[in-house]
Structures are given as structure tokens and as C-alpha cells.
Write a structure and sequence with these properties.
single chain, alpha+beta, three-stranded antiparallel β-sheet, 4 helices
């Protein structure tokens, strides 16, 4: 609720910090991910079937990340959608970034 966020600005700051950290971790792991001002981080995969396979493999590894594909996005621009929270630790984010990058690169 908005009143809670007004009274706890540290939650918003932590979420913004997590987004910045996660984007940099993905970039350091070799993925081309733009820095975004949102808690929803798109990771472009391209191929719709590959996005589904990557999402399924990551779920087996304990990482819940949605595959978004046509018709929600243009054909050929399928992506993973990472939804971040303020409660995630940098260790969680680093682990997820590494697993995401490894899984995408393994399926190239």
C-alpha cells in the first residue's frame, strides 16, 4: 500500500539498489541487459521456444522467471521477465544472474 511506502522509504531504496545490482550482475555474466528504472527486468532471448526452455530449466533450479513471447511481444523478441523485490539479498540476485546467464548461454 502506498501509505506503507511513504512511511518506509528504505524499502523503495532497497528495491532500486537491487534492480541496479541485478542488472550489473547480468551484464558481468555476459548478458546484454539494459539498466532499467523498474523492478521488472527484461532479459531478451529472441526465440520463443528457447525462452520457454530457459524458463523451465531455471524453474528446476529454483528460479521462477516468466517467459514472455508473441503475441505479448513482437515475434523474435521473446524475453524472460525477472520481477525483483526489496527482500532479495545480493547473494540471491548474484546466484540468479549467474544461473540465468549460464542457462541462456548453454542453450545457444
Amino acid at each position: 500500500n502506498l501509505r506503507y511506502l511513504e512511511n518506509h522509504p528504505e524499502c523503495v531504496q532497497k528495491l532500486q539498489s537491487n534492480v541496479e545490482f541485478f542488472c550489473k550482475a547480468l551484464q558481468n555474466a555476459g548478458l546484454q541487459v539494459p539498466s532499467v528504472p523498474s523492478a521488472i527486468v527484461p532479459i531478451i532471448v529472441g526465440d520463443e521456444e528457447k525462452a520457454l526452455l530457459v524458463s523451465a530449466e531455471l524453474q528446476k533450479q529454483g528460479i521462477l522467471i516468466s517467459a514472455i513471447r508473441y503475441p505479448t511481444v513482437q515475434k523474435g523478441s521473446a524475453r524472460l521477465r525477472a520481477s525483483l523485490m526489496a527482500s532479495l539479498s545480493t547473494e540471491d540476485l548474484e546466484f540468479a544472474a549467474q544461473k540465468i546467464a549460464q542457462t541462456i548461454q548453454k542453450m545457444r
